[in-house]
Design brief:
Structural class: mainly alpha
Distance between the termini: 32 Å
Protein name: Respiratory nitrate reductase chaperone NarJ
Number of domains: 1
Order of helices and strands: HHHHHHHEHHHHHE
Strand content: under 5%
Keywords: Nitrate assimilation
GO molecular function: metallochaperone activity; unfolded protein binding
Helix content: 55-70%
Number of helices: 12
């Protein structure tokens, strides 16, 4: 589904390439098959994004998705938290990609939502429906939190919920998240830094841009059952 690839692209960190390829991005909007209301929202999101200065858009993304764990786009963060099961789930998910004929070509973790969406955009409809069903509870959680934070990214997440569940009914989830303590405040982040061990390394992280596609196609293969199980989000 082209809609999944486009939404995944828009949920990803907004690199300068988006502005350099703005016309191609607008052209992609015309190929997306969504209900007219959702398609209009998607188009409006793109225009609002492109109207921002890249650094402003990047700061907005970081403020939502990279400060605290509540809005993490790493799906296993919400299923396994920091348990040992998370590592094995990562291994299983990479193997799932490989058995489907794809290799990760990125530094992102395999459970990063934009990676998952790009993968699903290349899979048959029945498999897409199965995956979206399994991660539907996480999408609802993220969408409800984004709504509570009045983020424009909420409409992207709501669209995914609609694709996964066939409808968007976030009020029960919104009531739940409304009582949550925010983990993206300076005080909460300071507390996390105090609790976590400091790690030193001799090699600086790479700063090159990721390739346009995270997967390199290999031979077609059978697709196993999704490893993103219908678990309750980690608390």
């Amino acid at each position: 589904m082209k809609a999944l690839k486009l939404i995944g692209l828009l949920l990803d960190y907004p690199r300068d390439e988006l502005w350099q390829r703005s016309e191609a991005l607008r052209a992609a909007l015309t190929e997306v098959e969504l209900p007219s209301g959702r398609a209009a929202q998607l188009s409006a999101f793109v225009e609002d994004l492109l109207a921002l200065d890249p650094m402003e858009a990047q700061e907005r993304w970081l403020a939502l998705f990279d400060r605290g764990r509540a809005m993490s786009l790493l799906l296993f963060e919400h299923i396994h938290g920091e348990s040992r099961d998370r590592g094995q789930a990562m291994v299983d998910l990479v193997e799932t990609y490989r058995r489907a004929g794809f290799e990760l070509d990125t530094r992102e973790l395999p459970d990063y939502l934009p990676v998952v969406l790009e993968f699903l955009s290349q899979r048959p409809a029945a498999e897409v429906a199965d995956w979206l069903h399994h991660i539907g509870h996480i999408l609802e959680l993220l969408a409800a939190r984004a709504v509570e934070r009045a983020s424009p990214y909420a409409q992207l997440l709501e669209t995914l919920v609609e694709l996964a569940q066939g409808r968007v009914e976030l009020e029960p989830m919104r009531r739940r998240v409304a009582s949550e303590a925010r983990d993206d405040t300076p005080e909460a982040m300071d507390a996390v830094w105090e609790e976590e061990a400091v790690r030193f390394g001799v090699q600086a992280p790479e700063d090159d841009c990721q390739p346009p596609s995270r997967f390199s196609a290999a031979r077609p293969a059978s697709y196993p059952t999704s490893t993103l199980m219908d678990s309750a989000p980690a608390r």
